[in-house]
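#onboarding

Welcome to the new folks! Below is a worked example of what a typical request in this channel looks like: someone posts a single protein sequence, and someone else replies with the predicted structure as tokens. Don't worry about understanding the tokens yet, we'll cover that in week two.

Example request:
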Amino acid sequence: MSPRAAAIAADLRCLSLLFSYPDAAWASLPAPAESGAQAAALLARMRAVDAVVLQGEYVRLFIDAMPTLPCPPYGSVHLEGSVMGRTTVELAARYRRYGLVCEEAADHIAVECEFLALLHRFVGDDASAAADCRFFVDHLQSWVGTFFDLVDRHDKLGIYRQAAAFGRSVVAAAGSGTDDPGTAGTLLH
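Example response:
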């Protein structure tokens, strides 16, 4: 795997962590080794926030706010208007081809980023993985801009706004990296 593909995979993994529920297990996971200083610093800043405050903001933004959820982290909501739509089923089927079954909805931003991180490790060696990687990057790019805009608008702590800004860079790099993982785009490090 090229250093660029390793860096993109690490940043996707970090992005997955940034948009995962911040429980005790989450807090104990190390930043991916190949992540750049920006990713590691952002994860450290997020972990420095009081756990109850961070969990409260996560729940309010991404799980259960009334009367409506401000920032649904699911692609199907942005693309189809409801959770667990056709795209969710299609993504889950693609995960299963790799032997993966997830507890969270297949189109949750953290799940998609985690899976893309895995795929980026195989892009240079496997044409099928490269095609799947392109599919997942295209899917992610089709909805995360709207999601990140909502995070920018609704985050009260500011830390998720920072995660969204980082996410925009990571998703753009992942997109350029699927075309030529050895040379395309600008590294985030």
